[in-house]
């Protein structure tokens, strides 16, 4: 049950502190390469495509494994055996539809047996010279000699045309996959969001910081009815669908980052048909 005091009026000063805290949560990210959303208007013939794995991003800085926000992960020593002295970027993953297990396993400060089921799926070699496939080949060549059974190099497939991408996306999502990433293989490495790296899904997703918990009505009158979220662009809105009863009984606390899916925006910039997906802890 959601405690009643959670729904008391929040003063302006407290709200300001919460908004500032949310901004701080978004500010700590590493300077990594991030995809933009595919609109179908881009010319992607000759690019490469791969499945977008729904796991926890892991950045190897040559010495240790970090989250996308730069926080140290704690994998067992055997997991990072033979990792190189150069940088790697990839996804810590087990299988499709297994995000909660992956997250709880790789973010645990005390590495457990769950790491046996985790693989490190490499999709980039940051700051290496040359085109994308040349960079990726550096990682392939390294692990060909320095063996590690938990390493995967994510396969890249040439895109013949847009229908080729559509077929691949349908295949991935029919198997429970999250989506596809398409990338210009000729571009040198760069950080930030880029029109040369695109994520392709049937729906879009986004993250927001929880700044309020709103009491439910009807059958949810003793539970959480919706979350008030603040987006990175300062938009504030209520997210009320996609939750299980367990989520409603034990809602994510204020300051938590959650991921939701949506289908476009209203004229006021509010995500349309937004639905909760998960809590982000990395």
Any overview of this molecule?
By secondary structure, this protein is of the alpha+beta class. It folds into two domains: 4-27 and 204-280, Nucleic acid-binding proteins (OB fold (Dihydrolipoamide Acetyltransferase, E2P), Beta Barrel), CATH 2.40.50; 36-200, DNA ligase/mRNA capping enzyme (D-amino Acid Aminotransferase, Chain A, domain 1, 2-Layer Sandwich). The chain contains five helices and 15 strands. The strands form three sheets. The protein has a five-stranded mixed sheet with strand order 1-10-9-2-8. Strand 12 and strand 13 form a beta hairpin. It is globular and about 60 Å long. The two termini are 26 Å apart. Residues 1-27 have low confidence and may be disordered.
- Approximate helicity band: 10-25%
Low-confidence stretches: 1-27
Largest sheet: 5 strands, mixed
What fraction strand? Answer: 25-35%
CATH fold-level label of the largest domain: D-amino Acid Aminotransferase, Chain A, domain 1
CATH class of the largest domain: Alpha Beta
CATH architecture of the largest domain: 2-Layer Sandwich
Number of domains: 2
Q: SSE order in H/E notation?
A: HEEEEEHEHEEHEEEEEHEE
Mean pLDDT: 88
Ends apart, CA distance between termini: 26 Å
The coarse silhouette is: globular
Instruction: Name the CATH homologous superfamily of the largest domain.
Output: DNA ligase/mRNA capping enzyme
Strand line-up across the major sheet: 1-10-9-2-8
């Amino acid at each position: 049950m959601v405690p009643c005091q959670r729904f008391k009026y929040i003063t302006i000063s407290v709200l300001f502190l919460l908004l500032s805290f949310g901004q701080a949560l978004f500010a700590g990210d590493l300077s990594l390469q991030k995809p933009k959303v595919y609109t179908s208007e881009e010319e992607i013939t000759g690019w490469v495509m791969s499945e977008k794995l729904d796991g926890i991003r892991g950045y190897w800085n040559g010495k240790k494994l970090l989250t996308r926000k730069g926080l140290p992960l704690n994998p067992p020593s055997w997991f990072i055996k033979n990792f190189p002295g150069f940088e790697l970027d990839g996804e810590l993953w087990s299988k499709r539809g297994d995000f909660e297990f992956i997250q709880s396993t790789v973010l645990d400060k005390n590495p457990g047996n769950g790491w046996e089921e985790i693989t490190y799926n490499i999709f980039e070699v940051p700051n290496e010279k040359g085109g994308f496939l040349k960079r990726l080949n550096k990682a392939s060549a390294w692990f060909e000699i320095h063996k590690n059974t938990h390493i995967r190099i994510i396969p890249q497939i040439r895109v013949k045309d847009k229908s080729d991408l559509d077929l691949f996306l349908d295949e991935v999502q029919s198997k429970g996959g999250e989506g596809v990433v398409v990338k210009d293989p000729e571009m040198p490495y760069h950080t930030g969001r880029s029109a040369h790296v695109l994520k392709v899904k049937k729906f879009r997703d986004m993250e927001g910081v929880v700044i309020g918990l709103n009491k439910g009505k009807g059958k949810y009158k003793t539970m959480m009815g919706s979350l008030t979220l603040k987006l990175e662009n300062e938009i504030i809105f209520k997210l009320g669908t996609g939750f299980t009863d367990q989520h409603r009984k034990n809602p994510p606390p204020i300051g938590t980052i959650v991921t939701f899916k949506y289908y476009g925006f209203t004229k006021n910039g509010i995500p349309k048909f937004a639905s909760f997906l998960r809590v982000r802890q990395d």
